[in-house]
Predict the structure.
Amino acid sequence: MIDFIPLEHYFDFFIYGVMLLLIFTLLHITVLDINDEKIKFFNLALGGFTLVLLLLYIGLRPVSGRYFTDMKTYAYIFDSYRVGGEIRGEGDLGFAYFTYYSAKLITRDAYFFVCAVLYIVPLFWASKRWFPNHYFFAFLMLICSFSFYTYGVNGIRNGIATSFVILGLSYDKKYISMAFWFMLGVLFHKTMLLPVAVFVIASIYKNIKAYFIFWVLSIILSSTMGGIWIALFTSLGFGDNDRMGSYLTDAPDTGKFSSVGFRWDFLIYSAIPIIMGYIYVYKMDYKDSTYHKILSTYLLSNAFWIMIIRANFSNRFAYLSWFLMAVVIFYPVLKTLFWKDQFKKIGYMMVAYYMITYILLIILG
């Protein structure tokens, strides 16, 4: 257990540690070509080092309800199973059974380490599948994402579920493997039904222009008829009191929705990958079918969140699109050569992406 770092500075060590890692990466990006053989070694060395360091740092953290919020609740449920308590599925039976049998087989500290493995390793694995020669850069951007840390230490089951879905997306066109990871994601957190269902729709109806139009329309629908959509989604069961999904409202030091109402700041944040996606698809004529489906999934999932953005439970919907943000922004530039000196431009994009997270969590958080 890592108990030598003061808990009040645990997040600070993470965010500034990632900054140092990014600076070190930029030093290589500015002097190496994207196809340089040294990049393969850099991927292997930094990728493995970062993976192990993250697993140890997040997986071996002390149990704390004050600094890791819902971690204390997970620990309580684990301990109740350990002494013979009944399974508390609440619709997420995959995670419930995982916790139940973990309590019978391993210690509580080992359980949280395994949770970290289930959260982080699928992201690393998906990065390697998508970008075998540049996977470290994709993995680093997933780590730099706004909600990565919060989902690792607080909204644990939701974080694991989204990682399973991302891994499933990396198996596009390998339908059995994709379905397995999608199903596992839904079993760990039922809200994954939304992005999974949207991905299926995007795979069948491939008119990406329609999804862009619907996203713009969702802003109008939210502004003029927001109460109707809130009532609708509440009636479907998304307004129940579930503390496990409250990571963005309960953790002021790791990002939150600081007020209710129409959040233009978060709408602008959500629009960044949409603007990049528009540039890739329409300005650069990028035709990768996998990317089109992922972008369409982001557009539709984010549109649903915008429609209920004023609700006090809308935080549950936000991450159902935001967990794909790094993929939407960086997938094309790590797959295809668009510009001269593209590697350096990727470096600038990485810095900008990290700075958005830094501003939201440190300066404004």
Q: What stands out?
A: The chain has one domain: 7-363.
